[in-house]
Specification:
alpha+beta, 4-stranded antiparallel beta sheet, two-stranded antiparallel sheet, 2 helices, 6 strands, 33% helix, rod-shaped
Length: 148
């Protein structure tokens, strides 16, 4: 406080440079944490979208298997599905003799700069159970729980 000519005290107001620098540093740290969390959520959502797109092939594929359809029907065109989406170039493999189909439905990931030339596949076992598999280049923290 300062004393003026009348011997009355005046209160100082405002912030010191140190106080302002501390506030800016705290805001910067919070922004960095929020940005990291945001990008992680975006990547999880993109991979969940890919998994959902792959899942759209399950019923048509299963129907072809149940009908005992010819091997050449096991293609993206044979399933009446699109060959690609924003994030996937799809591939289909026919079942083998025991009824299983390793890598039955494949997504070659595209348009994601953090995942170049990676694959996510759905396979069917001989007892007709579907399994999701993501290749090693895809961080597990981004994958849907069915693919971990």
């Amino acid at each position: 406080m300062h004393q003026n000519d009348n011997n009355t005290f005046m209160a100082q107001s405002g912030y010191t440079l140190i106080e302002l620098m501390i506030a800016v540093a705290i805001i910067g740290i919070l922004a960095a944490i929020a940005t990291t969390g945001y990008y992680m959520q975006v990547r999880q959502t993109q991979l969940a979208t890919i998994y959902q797109e792959l899942s759209n092939f399950l019923i048509p594929y299963q129907m072809l298997m149940d009908e005992g359809t010819m091997m050449n029907s096991f293609s993206v065109a044979g399933l009446n599905m699109s060959t690609q989406s924003e994030y996937c170039q799809f591939g289909i493999s026919p079942p083998i003799g025991d009824g299983s189909a390793p890598n039955a439905i494949t997504c070659h990931i595209q348009n994601l700069n953090y995942l170049q030339n990676e694959l996510i596949t759905l396979s069917v076992t001989a007892d007709r159970k579907w399994q999701c598999k993501a290749f090693d280049g895809i961080p597990k923290m981004y994958l849907p729980s069915d693919c971990k």
